[in-house]
Amino acid sequence: MNCVKSRHVIEDIIKKSRFIGVVIPCVDENDVLFNLKQLHSEHPNASHIAYAYRLKTENGIIYRFHDAGEPTGTAGKPIFQHLEGKELINLLVAVIRYFGGIKLGAGGLTRAYGNTARQAIETAETGPYVELTEVRLTLDYRQIQGLEYALAKLGGQIVKQDFSEQVHLVVQLPAGHVDTLLQSYPTHY
To answer: How confident is the model at residue 15 (pLDDT cuts 50, 70, 90)?
Structure first.
């Protein structure tokens, strides 16, 4: 599975209609909804904002697609097929259409939305998906510097810390490196 690294936008004109393809990394459905709301505010005069998203959750992969008023199956599904075909997760792909006055027909719409999504995905920076996990640790103050060094080597980071008699931490790192970390820092809460 792969994911996108950052937001990416492309634009194409097809028979006088302007199509804007946007790829946005998202971590959950709230993130998707926030980004869709933002796209609607950035493009208030757009004729249609069709989209598809695919997210990895604890319960497996969830996905949705929406035609945004275009004929059924001509916008959302062609976008989604590129997400699924390239095994991309944790992203939203939206295609914004400004109608140019020439009707494209069902086949033309399907090609236009699908090709715009494909171009946006192919030109976006993608990489392998790395599942992150959180680990809670309790350490002595003298162990913090060593932990920070180990986390940097393992691609992890401290996401929460609470200082009392000991330091209580929540660290995030690739799931495949948890055992390595816990060999050096076995005390967790």
So the answer is: very high
